[in-house]
Write a structure and sequence with these properties.
281 residues, alpha+beta, Beta-Lactamase, 32% helix
Length: 281
Amino acid sequence: MTEPSVVQAAVDALAADLGCPVLVEDPRHQPLWWSVHESVDEVRMRTILQRMVAPETAALIRRLRLAHATGPVRTPEIREIGMRERWCVPIRTVDDHLGYLWVEDGDGRVGADLLPRLRDCAELAADVLARAKAARAGQALRRSALLDRLLRGDTVADGADGAAARELAALEHLPHDVTVVVRAPAQAGGWQLPGDMSAHVWHRGRRPRPAARRCRSPGCVRRRAGLPPPGGRSRRARCSTGPAGTRSARGGLSSRRPSRSPSPRSTRARRFWPGARAPTS
């Protein structure tokens, strides 16, 4: 089993042997491992220091279809953005593209006889990244199962709900005083859940704000469009959308959920503590 430190050591050794800067990044071009080198081009510095790539670089990667390549590819120089020639080795398994290994080679030091060294380093990185991806997928499945159990609330009587809350806190390394808010419909920046919902972590002192929703009644839609109310009525229809319903669990975690499928106008809430019988609402 390859450890991340082994990949870093391989990157350093490869850079020392080739005399060229080496960089390993994920599919979104976020740097993961890189060698220390005095002379690097602007594209490499921007990737490591600012964690971004120039649009021209991204366009080149798409044009050369580097994510689908099966071996080392020599990329051209782009002087306008300060990009020297380099070798790119896609990091992949049989089914997944996991990243890129870049060797900056503006002087043409790396010949065909050295390309197997690049492949070996890419394979080490692929082993680590594949296991990390599988671990994240397993964690996401377990997280979804725990959140689903908390949302259903059908195991409160025997205290299993509190155990689910504690397991979720341990799984995600959450502090004891956080609140998990479930939004319906789903919002960006959280854990995506089935049924067009998402879960968001709120820390103590940050009060969750109600999700902003627009009323979809015909009167409200017409008012937003600047049209008169239907039927010529002048009375403004009042619409309000409340926050998602709430429920809390001791054991270091609060979870908030709709007590039933959220309607576009209002939601209901109920609160209970695990280990005790849930009150009826």
